[in-house]
Amino acid sequence: EHRATAETKMNSTSSRSHAVFQICIRSKNESKGISRYANINLVDLAGSEKVKMSKVEGRAFLEATQINQSLSTLRRVIDTLIENQINPKKKLVPPFRDSVLTWVLSETLGG
């Protein structure tokens, strides 16, 4: 109900944003002096959009472009992390800062 949507030629309720719900759990055992924490991210990604087919214009065009860019950045981050696992000598730097989505998820993704 509160999610940003807009109608396109391909989808009457096209999602116009990603949603990230972060849960931070912290526990402290004072008698042992141990603190632990965990972060859980629930992520609902907006789908990529073929602008030529959806025929979006104006603000919807900018939203579609930004959605596509953030999804591409997420893919590049994941590809870089995989490459670093396969070939640890390379130590490529994932482009976490290239989008707000990947920057927010960087700690969880391994940054």
Description:
- The chain contains four helices and four strands.
- By secondary structure, the chain is of the alpha+beta class.
- The two termini are 33 Å apart.
- The relative contact order is 0.16.
Describe the secondary structure blueprint for this structure.
Blueprint: E1 5-6, E2 14-15, E3 19-29, E4 34-44, H1 51-54, H2 58-86, H3 100-104, H4 106-109
Antiparallel strand pairs: 1-2, 3-4
Quick synopsis:
The chain is an alpha+beta fold. It contains four helices and four strands; from the N terminus they run ββββαααα.
Low-confidence stretches: none
From the alpha carbons, calculate the radius of gyration and give it in angstroms: 18 Å
In whole angstroms, the N-to-C terminal distance is: 33 Å
Task: Trace the largest sheet across and list its strands.
Answer: 1-2
Number of distinct helices: 4
The major pleated sheet works out as: 2 strands, antiparallel
Order of helices and strands: EEEEHHHH
Query: Percent helix among the residues?
Result: 25-40%
Average pLDDT confidence is: 85
Strand content: 15-25%
Shape: flat
Structural class of the helices, strands and pairings?
alpha+beta
Strand tally: 4
Features:
two-stranded antiparallel ribbon; 4 strands; 4 helices; 111 residues; flat; alpha+beta
